[in-house]
Amino acid sequence: MSAVLRKPKTFKLRSLHSEKKFGVAGRSCEEVLRKGCQHLQLPISGSRLCLYEDGTELTGDYFRSAPDNSELVLLTADQTWQGFVSDISRFLSVFQEPHAGVIQAARQLLSDEKAPLRQKLLADLLGTVSENITAETRAEDPPWFEGLESRFRSKSGYLRYSCESRIRSYLREVTSGASLVGAEAREEYLRLVGSMQQKLQAAQYNSSYFDRGAKASRRLCTPEGWFSCQGPFDVDDCTSRHSINPYSNRESRVLFSTWNLDHVIEKKRAVVPALAAAVHDAEGREVDWEYFYRLLFTLENLKLVHIACHKKTTHKLHCDPSRVYCAPVAPRRKRPARQRP
Length: 341
What we know:
The protein is of the alpha+beta class and 341 residues long. Helices cover 38% and strands 10% of the residues. The strands form 3 sheets. Strands 2-1-4-3 form a 4-stranded mixed β-sheet, covered by helices on one side. α4 runs antiparallel to α5 and α7 crosses α9 (267-280). This is CIDE-N domain-containing protein.
């Protein structure tokens, strides 16, 4: 049994599943536990007290040093508490599958709130719980399509178009690179670009990258439509853990347009000039246009990045000189003729 203090210590006590707290005082851990169980009508057997902050169990040894007015959680035998993280987990579970009451309560709080920071937090939460992620068609989620042409009938269809538009813009930039070569090599340059265009057409301009309904190997998002930032060109991951779901609501759809498909080896500074130089210096060698195709239009050299992770500085990366030209095909050796006996 723990030592009994002369002067009682005061605590704020609550049960696991209640936000309501009440004051309790006692000269020992056992006295506080007994009073708490009596107030909450819980069995004393197996019950215990934990600090709300970090889940530390309040024992006789710790009772003496515990600060006055510490917040405690009273747990029964089958309950656990890990501190703040437990409350955060419960909070997130409520907003993962919110019901109408949660949304209505959030809207009421927002209408009465005056502090700018709390307004922002509530507005962000309300935006999140009001999302209609599973909806796919214009009929299922009309607000998502506001401002878009009537020809777009599904979210996936629009996002495929969005991705295709980006890839087409890259192709236009590559085509304009013909000005970097002389007139005698320009025809060959445009022939190679034409081959790339045919491959893109066959792949539907890699529009599946933004389509949540595409095969896993052909998309950049989860089946629900969540995209994660892949970090700046010079790191392996996004330390800020940026993520977005443009399928969720109109605002997220608009914000997603600010995310970039960034070329690790830069398109304008490195890839297009290298392609032009390869055509100019070919001297009978065959340019490996598929190598340049992968650098320009595929995830081999593209990273999806949040605008804050899109570094505008020079990447100082270059194409691999050993891959610019196709390997020469060795001539087939003729088999010696068989001599007749």
